[in-house]
Amino acid sequence: MENREYTKVIAYVKERIAKGELHSGEKLPTERELAEVLSVGRYSIREAIRIMDALGMIESRQGSGNYLIANIEKSLIESMELMLLMKEIDYCQISKLRRAIELYTYDCAFQQMSDSDLKELADITECMGNSIGDEKVLLDKKFHDKITEGSGNTLIISIMASLSSVCRRQIEEVITNSSPETAQQLMNVHEDMLRGLVIKDLSRGIQAINRHYDLIDSQVSHENN
User: Fold this and answer.
1) Which helix (H) or strand (E) holds 65?
2) Please, which domain of life does this record's source organism belong to (predicted)?
3) Alpha-carbon distance 13 to 34, whole Å?
């Protein structure tokens, strides 16, 4: 039973979270304390900690202990990267999901974004127009993150961040290696996405998002052939 007792440790941590006895950022009991409370061996404790770390439930800090976090992005990224390696999913499927989520979050942002949020998005867009290389890649990420944050949905924000991370290499290659014509087209769709929010033209923004993903997908497909 030793090799299954780690489940008792994970269940115990979840139970304490559910009861409000353990909160994000707080330190977990030590290995000795867990072993005494649950009557399980140190090996099972360490196996449970390893699994919870992989799932993004906890963070192990050298010399300090294990702390509860809520990093579902970590487990999502690792799962999707493994599925990509095993060819159970491909870039096209990830891109379709990203497109669907961004269409939804844009609608949310359209309804909820404040003037200060729009000002920040406008500043990002302006900087994008004057940037190249890695700086443009970073600004592109900030632009899309800002729209996703407009949904106010923590789960969607985490899922979108995970999806973007998994296909970050393809996105970076498109942004940094595009022809001047394609680069200008990408800039135009970002400006139209912003403009749709500013002038309250949802249709304009939705069309821009679809053009954006069509451009990215077309470039990735071309590079893979």
Assistant:
1) strand 65-68
2) Bacteria
3) 10
β partners of residue 60:
66
Instruction: Give the count of domains, the chain.
Output: 2
Do 129 and 178 fall into the same domain? yes
Residue labelled with tokens 């949802």: 202
Q: What is the pTM of this model?
A: 0.77
Domain containing 56: what range?
A: 2-70
| DSSP strand pairing (58-61 vs 65-68) | antiparallel
Tokens in use for 217? 């997908």
d(CA 99, CA 112) in angstroms, rounded, equals: 20
Query: Do 32 and 53 fall within a single domain?
Result: yes
Q: Determine the Cα–Cα distance for residues 181 and 187; give it in Å rounded to an integer.
A: 10
Same domain, 24 and 100: no
Tokens of 5: 């007792």
Per-residue confidence of the chain (225 residues) as pLDDT tens digits? 445 889 999 999 999 999 999 988 899 999 999 999 999 998 999 999 998 888 888 888 888 899 998 777 888 888 888 888 899 989 899 999 999 999 999 999 999 999 999 999 999 999 999 998 899 999 999 999 999 998 989 889 989 999 988 888 888 888 888 899 999 999 999 999 999 999 999 999 999 999 999 999 988 877 665
CATH number at 103 reads: 1.20.120.530
DSSP 157-192: HHHHHHHHHHTHHHHHHHHHH--HHHHHHHHHHHHH
CATH number for the domain spanning 52: value is 1.10.10.10
Residue 197 and residue 160 in one domain: yes
